[in-house]
Amino acid sequence: MAYDAITLGILWNRLISITDEIVASLVRTSFSTVVRESYDLSCVLLDSRGQSLAQGSWSGTAFVGTIPRTVRHLLSRFPPETLKPGDVLATNDPWLGTGHLFDITVTRPVFRKSRLIGFTTTVTHLPDIGGRGFSSNAREVYEEGLRLVPCKLFERGTPVLAMFELIRANVRVPDQVIGDINANITANELGSARLLAFMAEYQVEDLSSLSDAILSHSEDAMRKEITKIPDGRYTHTINAEGVDGDLTIACTIDVADDQIKIDYSGSSPQSSFAINTPFCYTYAFTAYALKCLTIPDIPNNEGAFRPVVASAPAGCVLNPNFPSATGGRHALGHFIPTAIFGALQAVLPGRVLADPGLINLIRFYGRKPEGERFSTVYFASGGMGAHAQADGLTATPAPSNICSTPVEVFESVTGVLVRRRAIRPGSGGLGRYRGGHGQELLFENMTGHTLSVSLFANRTRFAARGFQGGSDGALREVLLDGEPVDPKSQQELPPGSTVQFAEAGGGGFGNPNERSPELIEQDRYLGLSGVAAN
Amino acid sequence: MGVDIGGTFTDFVLINSANGQIYTEKRLTSQDDPARSVLEGIDVLLSSAEASVAAVGNFVHGTTLAINAVIERKGARTGLITTAGFSDTLELARETRYDLYDLKLRFPSPLVSRPLRKEVQERLGPRGEVIKPIDLGEAIGRATELVEREKIESLAICFLHSFLNPVHEIAAREAISRKFPALSISLSSEVAPSIREYERTSTVTVNAYVQPLISGYLGRIESWLSERGFRGSFLLMTSSGGTISSSTARAFPVRLLESGPVAGMQMAALLGRLRSDQNILAFDMGGTTSKGYVVVAGEAEKTYQWEIARVHEFKVGSGLPIQSPAIKLVEIGSGGGSIASIDRRGVLQVGPQSSGASPGPACYGNEGMNPTITDANLLLGYLGADSFLGGRMRLSVDRAVDAIDDKVGRPLGLGTLESAWGIHEMANEDILRAFRIHAAERGIDVGGYTMIAFGGAGPLHAIRVAQKLRMRRVVVPLRAGVFSALGLLTAPIAFDVSSTRRTCVSSLSSEKIERTFDPLEETARRFVLQTGLPASKLKLRRELEVRYFGQGHEVVVKLPTGRKVAPETVSSLFHKAYQRTYQTTIKLDYELEIMNWRVEVIGPSPKIDLTQERSRSGIPPTKGTRRAFFHDPGKLVSTAVFDRSQLCAGDRIVGPAVVEEIESSLVIPPGQSAVVDAWLNLVIDIDQKGSRHGL
What we know:
The complex is a heterodimer. In chain A, strands 2-1-5-4-3-6-7 form a 7-stranded antiparallel sheet, with helices on both faces. Chain A has a 5-stranded antiparallel sheet with strand order 14-15-20-17-18, with helices on one face. A 4-stranded mixed sheet of chain A has the order 8-9-10-11. Chain A is built from 12 helices and 20 strands. Chain A has 2 domains: 5-218, no CATH class; 353-534, no CATH class. By secondary structure, chain A is α+β, with helices and mostly antiparallel strands. In chain A, helix 3 (63-77) crosses helix 8, helix 5 runs antiparallel to helix 6 (174-202) and helix 8 (279-294) crosses helix 10 (336-344). Chain B is α+β, with helices and mostly antiparallel strands. Chain B folds into 4 domains: 2-71 and 216-259, ATPase, nucleotide binding domain (Nucleotidyltransferase, domain 5, 2-Layer Sandwich); 78-209, Rossmann fold, CATH 3.40.50; 272-492 and 654-695, Nucleotidyltransferase, domain 5, CATH 3.30.420; 494-602, no CATH class. Chain B is built from 16 helices and 35 strands. In chain B, strands 13, 14, 15, 20, 23, 24, 31, 34 and 35 form a 9-stranded mixed sheet that branches. In chain B, strands 3-2-1-4-11-12 form a 6-stranded mixed sheet, sandwiched between helices. In chain B, strands 6-5-9-10 form a 4-stranded parallel sheet, with helices on both faces. In chain B, helix 10 (373-379) crosses helix 11 and helix 12 (416-441) packs across helix 13 (458-468).
């Protein structure tokens, strides 16, 4: 069935609104601050072939790219013809899922008139997964926690109790973890009810022709934009901090007509530590970067993946082999869009962003003053890069997308005190447009117990680069009781100790001498001029 | 007397309580000084009724002054004092991007810029305990810098965890007021006592930002009234649908932000009560937006966390967060002036860009070249080229055809009529989608509800939208043009207060529940009694916000009134509300935790009589016929046009038909019919035949 432009728009928008409802329900029913305050989550609707159709307007960057692949992996373990209404499938396998054990992908097959018509899928970052958890020291995935190979959490509407007991027995904060998994199940239950109501209302018997129409619309639009990029080969190499030495991301982009091929040959071999980035995650950030550069205003779906072919040699840090450790895959994976923007800045100067200061995931594990265990992640953003028309945003996540946890909430669930959360003046790189400034954070262990802090900080040696003559942003710094420490390490803080972060600034854009007098005066008035010392 | 200031017009209504006669007046809002048009309008209104100010019992006022001051950034020069280390909270916000792919997204700049934000040494812990006592000398010093060097006119104070313990905020205010008695000071612990420091800081800042303006404005009106011997109550409409005294409004002007639209919604609720339609979807479609809200069993749902002044096409996350009670409205960018275009996907998009009043839709014949919903409605035959605004404004069919062909028809390969229908239908879909989500968030389906449609464009779209939502009935009230102002007169005096007290349900007893509610009730009662209402007339509503222990968001549990409540009742009400809200079968065996305790004290709803006398013999006369397009049969058909002012109770109009009023027209598709009720509302019992979309 062919859809006219009016009908297609109506149906397409409805699908997006269903995913928005799923996200709202997920946030409101979850337990960990990682989900309920920081929104480390995603939601996608897929057709019966596992192709993504629509995603929540609020969605995490990587997960929307990994979900369709994860669902197809789940389907190869549980073939569609064996699925029943009320089944719920899940996995947190780094290679099949999102790149590390912390995220669980939960999917619910949706049946209409006893026919499988699609899937609703959510991902959330769990507050704990046992093992070493978030630790740069892990050398194999076995150390990092519980790995759930594709499994069923519900079978025909009944919980598979053994799975819940297994998970409960292997994590540090079982009520939160089980609560969050239930929030995923609830959200998918709501989503499938909404999807069925939508289909009944519009008499859509099966989603495939609608899916074809939506996907080809997006694909065509993206290919059209790609043809505007001059054919040719664009290369770029960037450096990033590893755990035991520096790492390289090399990318080679071949633009030919309406197709883009990206290959990461020449990137570092896989690491012995937990910074390896499984290919699913590499791919997701690759596709994300190209979507931003071509069709940022068209809702995302599988159609925007089709014109992109990505590859990385097996055994390289962007396509590591099992069982390498991957807990900190984001600390490297977040550099991928900057490598792509760097390669294409000469041909797309009006579309790229200068390098971002990136986000810092700080995991706190310990006991509250009353003795109860907690495990949580605090997300602290650096500054965003500037672009050709404006300054970068201060303390804003990029390319990932997360919210910070309110200090009042963080303190109440941990007993750790935040002493300072302030803009870091002068940390954004100079330029015609300045990079966004980072922020300063100071945590004090007021719990009365030893507090464990897992550090996975990047941009401690390689600053966010400015583009087109803009200067680099300030580096990230981590201090323990005022002294610099290894930024990728696990630290034990005795009661009364502090850990302090100066988050990295974004890169500037354009020659600083061309900055307008008004903007210079505004910087001065706001107390944000100058250059932060490193 | 009710006076409602809107964006373009100020509406006036006077009801003679002796004989029920209703007088109305409508005039352009004087943008430079809204008090002028208000006072002039009151004069005209009173003289038309041959009454004096001294004879007015209650004067209820709704105003968009506060929200416009924020949107247009015309508030006071405002300072902010925070806990040491947190003066940038207002600017760091929640550190998130509301659009994942738009790398050039922007955020509103903070209402208080960096040099006007100062810090004071003090610290409370996460249980409200004092970790470091406040340095009052420093507080006075910072305030002095702000007043003397930065010339602030208003000050907001927000300390961490003050919602649990206001002691430092209160001490700071006392110390600063002693030195600067004239300075207006807003405390976060009074304005928005809930957790999450960014949202609370944002709210108290907005309060401080609009306070001098609102205070000056109200003062001017009050002295004008008292010079003329006014002895009644001067009341203000709040965002949550109750009215408050002007002194309360001066302290908490943030409560007035949505007072405009809420008045119309109140009126819809009243109409529902009169007609015994208890479950309502109110639908107000104007020139730039559509608004809606649901009333279930006579009650509207409230929200305590919302957003104003969005900078990016109504996108969630691009505005300033507000933590204050408000009727939960949904607002989307679909109004008569919304522009139709082809979006980047190659599909039709209608709004949120609007042609506004100037240049306006293409058919206005001004500079506007873009096709709008109004242009589509003209070509579909729903609006008359010669009868728009009672014939005061001629619409150009040719201009509408050109605009639609140019921007929609040719790019999509569609004919003019097909394109016009597409625009009309896309607007219907955008509206009903927003409404459905709004209803779904409350866990309800509006199928079976009654729609009350008003605003200039509401009745043009009402029946089709209602049909698609499978609603039972549509009511199009008389005087839709001054509907909001009339609504002001129906609102009860009310005030709600809340308090965050984290409590496990299992640790509670009935007595403890009462003890926790008592002081809240006391406070709310005090604000309501300020208006002069006798204590015997007050009603009480109590709500808890409850969650599973460890969650971060709550479900509202409404407690039964008039008796003590057992903890087990709270548990069972929570589980029901949770499963309904999230449409889930999941029920966890976790401990339940109460976060917020909320009390609303409400006075009686004023009674107004809307019965209308009008009679005529014979069948309703038509003004003529014109050709109008309907989805079924999918072509132009001859359609009777009626003049609403000629219709009397009991009249029945069978579709296809258009009923014209000065400010709006009701479109009745084939297969539907309208009956005029005792209040001269047009009532359409929806025939659901053919309600499937047939897409």
